[in-house]
Amino acid sequence: MRKPVPWTEPLRLTVETPKTRRRKPTNPADAGNGIGAEAPRSKPRTSPRSPVRKLTPTVTPSKATASKQLLTLLGHNESCATLRRAGGIVSCDCRIKAMEDPAITVGLAIHFARISLAQRAPLPAVIIELLARRVEEGDPACVMVAEWLETCGLLDLKPLRNSKRRPG
């Protein structure tokens, strides 16, 4: 009788965009005014004479870690996405699309990968973020698509730093 093959857990991966040169998004009209993206912003003044008691909510809302673009892709409206990113709301009445299904993530990633390969353009950051969330959760279909996208040169796979699993 043969010995059983020892099983090792697969390495947990994360997705990163490939390193490309990008320009800073600045408005050329503001160049002469000194208002560019690198201009310092002034801090709001607080009056030392009138102490204002800060109200604390009974339910502490957590800040959304997803980008505003991903939240709008999921079905939130822009004001809701802004408040959710700031931690201003706990729940909303937005009709959210079924993006929790990994099959939809795989379908979107393949759809945009075909477009990116045909037009020689990078994948949209929202799609990379959505795929990265599923890869970090360990969904095998999303990991397989991420590995395919890495072979195509559309993204980079990196092992997670704080992973408890050992590379096998």
What's the arrangement of secondary structure elements?
Elements (H helix, E strand, L loop, with lengths): L12 E4 L51 H7 L3 H9 L15 H18 L5 H13 L2 H13 L3 E4 L9
Antiparallel strand pairs: 1-2
Q: State the end-to-end distance.
A: 25 Å
Low-confidence stretches: none
Mean pLDDT: 75
Major sheet strand order: 1-2
Q: Quick one: biggest sheet?
A: 2 strands, antiparallel
Percentage of residues in helical conformation: 25-40%
Secondary-structure element pattern, one letter each:
EHHHHHE
User: Which class do the helix and strand fractions yield?
Assistant: mainly alpha
In total, how many beta strands? 2
| Number of H- or I-type helical stretches | 5
| Beta strand % | under 5%
Rg result: 22 Å
Instruction: Indicate the overall shape.
Output: globular
Give a short synopsis of this structure.
By secondary structure, this protein is mainly alpha-helical. The protein has helices spanning 68-74, 78-86, 102-119, 125-137, 140-152; strands at 13-16, 156-159. It contains 5 helices and 2 strands.
Structural account:
- By secondary structure, the chain is mainly α.
- Among the domains are: 60-97, no CATH class; 98-160, no CATH class.
- It has five helices and two strands, in the order βαααααβ.
- The protein has a two-stranded antiparallel sheet.
- The longest helix is centred in the middle third of the chain and has 18 residues, at 102-119.
- The model has no long low-confidence stretch (mean pLDDT 75).
